Amino acid sequence: MIEADNITKRYGDFLAVDQVSFRAGAGEVIGFLGPNGAGKTTTMRILTGFLPATDGRARIAGHDIFEEPLAARRAVGYLPETPPLYPEMDVTGYLEFVAKIKDVPRARRRSAVESALERCGLADVHRRVIGSLSKGFRQRVGIAQAILHDPPVLILDEPTVGLDPIQIREIRGLIADLADPEKTEARTIVLSTHILAEVEAICRRVLMIHEGKMVLDSAIGELTAEGQSLEDVFARMTLREGEAA
Amino acid sequence: MKHLGAIAGRELRSLFVSPVAYAVLTLFAVLAGFFFLLSVQGFRETMAYYQQIGQFDVLRQLNLNNQVIGPFIQVMWIVFLFLIPGITMGLFANEKTNGTQELLMTSPLTMWELVLGKFLAAAAFVTILIAMMALFPALLFLDAGTPVLGLIFSGFDLADPNPEGLQMWAGLLGLWLLGLTYAAVGTFSSSLTRNQLVAFFLALALLLILWLLSVVADLGVAEGAAGTASRLSGVLTWLSTSDHFDKLARGLVDTRDLAYFVFMIGTFLVLTKTSVESVRWR
Ligand SMILES: Nc1ncnc2c1ncn2[C@@H]1O[C@H](COP(=O)(O)OP(=O)(O)O)[C@@H](O)[C@H]1O
Ligand SMILES: [Mg+2]
Fold it and tell me: Which residues of B touch A146 (CB under 8 A)?
């Protein structure tokens, strides 16, 4: 579903992402882990077509993101770091707008909006103005926006950042539900986070990125089978330079 | 271009859920009414003047088009100068502060759909403004003997008190094109910054410069410049909105002036597209 080959991004002289490669198959739920500034957002922005890569290639659902950008974007649902909401719109109006620009056929728009409202637990607030919603609800609207056109690939950038513990649990539950193979046809989910527990709670595979470089790509089950905890690996990978200095 | 309606429609809806849009429309109606009354008042003073000095043949030649409608349309550019940047300032700046830019740019939209959709929303608003202000000169087209015309002409005798419709339409067309040009400049300004206020003042500055280019050109000519300098002043005059608009406002339709406005709108929309795309190279 996602094929990333040597994705590299420079901001001027600064190398933010350095030759990141990975493959993600249908139905995989991947945690994209790394400390702040590691390059997670940049990588996700490249995969979603928001930013061009300086170098490297990527395909989403078989479409090259540079050569067939529109087809690739149609296959992705994306929740950016800050949910992309219009505060003055009501929830339903907003989702209807998103359905139009995501090419949901007219006949299916209403049901797409209704099922996204339902899945994200927004049915009770669907007429509310987005600006008046709590942070947790706004995050849900952000997720509803991402799944609206039922894309085979979901990219979620720090979906629980800034939420309180109860909201975090709700959003994690929602993501687990989106990943549930019983409920949806195989969907690939990549979510970034700097919280280890989040990966352990939801993901079956972890990609670790540090200073723009991919430092780990492993199934969580394999790590624990080897007797390592994710925390040990994370500490080893990210602290190495700190200790040397 | 199938997403054009979605982009423009969302923009207009957001504009009209806020009380600001209605405040702006009310203010606009009041200002238009005020300037219209001022034009009518000026007309009556002119008539009174010629009557007083006994120039009855000049007085008889005065007409509503040249003395009221023309000046009214011409003076409305000042209102547009301040109002249109206010309408366009949020078009792209707000997308950046809301973070919705990331939604738009990762959706299967083309850059032209986005830019033209935004411009279309502003253009629709400008069209509403024109329709509103056209109601005032429309009063002059009521049948003779109605209170409005009776009040204006009471005590004066004109050869042809009835206004000419086509001349008014030409003026409104000129103001509409001017408004669309301002909307294109405002859209461009909004694409350059994430701050609405900066976008507003940037648009205002650009529009003033566009207006004043012809004044600069006139200064050059007054200096008695020849050769390249006079050619330069010709270019500046052509680039400036003033002369093209003035001719249309007086009812003179020249395809070269129409082409000028189309050229300016196109140029600023291309600049907007380049500027919006540039997030991708940074
Ligand atoms: N537009 C930009 N211009 C310059 N540097 C940037 C830009 N965006 C991100 N960076 C830098 O690139 C690095 C990676 O950032 P980011 O991808 O946001 O990391 P993460 O999401 O993992 O916290 C950081 O050091 C950040 O300062
Ligand atoms: Mg980030």
Answer: none
